[in-house]
Amino acid sequence: MLEPKNNDELPPIPPKRYFTIGEVGELCAVKPHVLRYWEAEFPQLKPVKRRGNRRYYQRQDVVLIRQIKSLLYEQGYTIGGARQKMTEDPEELNKTNVNASEIKSLVRDLEEVIGRL
């Protein structure tokens, strides 16, 4: 989903259970008011709310936000188009495009490694 150049620009997601809205903003390079807006527009994005209505995002929420950001900012989708794409084929968002020649090359390499063993 995210192109390699975009992954390099964003910091890695630390191994934490919950993230505040400020932390998610830094991890995804998105301002908190945009995150709150996206919550209203994308039904998949539902952070845990605790005392005082504070939002706590989980790792899968951060990944989802990065996907939304990629659809909107890098791929040029509108909010409605991105929402539709995410509801139509959520599995498709996580797939990578691998062509047949790459697969054949990997199979040959694996067979060579197995032959050495």
List SSEs in N-to-C order.
Answer: HEHHEEHHHH
Q: What would CATH call the class? A: Mainly Alpha
User: What's the number of structural domains?
Assistant: 1
Question: What average pLDDT do the residues reach?
Answer: 83
Biggest β-sheet: strands ordered side by side in the sheet: 1-3-2
Radius of gyration: 18 Å
Low-confidence stretches: 1-5
The beta-strand count equals 3
Q: What's the CATH topology label?
A: Multidrug-efflux Transporter Regulator, Chain: A, Domain 2
The CATH architecture: Orthogonal Bundle
Helix content percent band: 55-70%
Shape: elongated
Query: Which band does the percent of strand residues land in?
Result: 5-15%
Secondary structure category: mainly alpha
Structure description:
The chain is mainly α. It has one domain (4-116): Orthogonal Bundle (Multidrug-efflux Transporter Regulator, Chain: A, Domain 2). Helix content is 62%, strand content 8%. The chain is built from seven helices and three strands. It has helices spanning 4-9, 21-28, 32-41, 59-74, 79-88, 90-94, 100-116, and strands at residues 19-20, 48-50, 54-57. A three-stranded antiparallel beta sheet has the order 1-3-2. It is elongated, with a radius of gyration of 18 Å. The two termini are 36 Å apart. The model is unreliable at 1-5 (pLDDT under 50).
